[in-house]
Amino acid sequence: MKLILTPQRQRDYAPASFSAEGEALTVTIGDTCDVLDFSQAGHGTFDDFASNTLPWMPVLKATKTEAGLTVWVLNDYGPEPMREDDEPDDEFAARYAAWDRQRDDYEVQL
């Protein structure tokens, strides 16, 4: 499963995390999780997701084709990192690069 993470500035609630087993996507927010199972779905695009258990739904859409399943989700990112007084250049650069990467769409394989 391919996950496309779309940036969203962090809100006042817990961010979502994602894991997958086959064509089932598990969405976890805080201590609550829900599973979106696409294994029985035919090919097509799906974009009307809801959950009775999650406080908010980070899944935007999913497309299933012969090539596989791609799911677009919101990816919360926090405020721009500030450099600590005693932080080495390379550590700050790595931390900043990780934060900066989250401000653009990016893809991960689950």
Could you please describe the fold and organization of this structure?
The chain has 110 residues and is mainly beta. The protein has one domain. Helix content is 12%, strand content 45%. The protein has one helix and eight strands. It has a five-stranded mixed sheet, with no helix packed on it. A three-stranded antiparallel sheet has the order 2-3-4, with no helix packed on it. The longest helix is centred in the C-terminal third of the chain and has 13 residues. It is elongated. The mean pLDDT is 93.
Helix content: 10-25%
Tell me the count of domains.
1
Task: Give the overall pLDDT as a whole number.
Answer: 93
How many helix segments?
1
Q: What is the end-to-end distance?
A: 5 Å
Rg from Cα: 16 Å
Main beta-sheet annotation = 5 strands, mixed
Order of helices and strands: EEEEEEEHE
Number of strands: 8
Main structural class: mainly beta
Strand order of the largest sheet: 5-6-7-1-8
Instruction: State the low-pLDDT regions, or none.
Output: none
The portion of residues forming beta strands comes to: over 45%
Shape by Cα distribution: elongated
Give a short synopsis of this structure.
It contains one helix and eight strands.
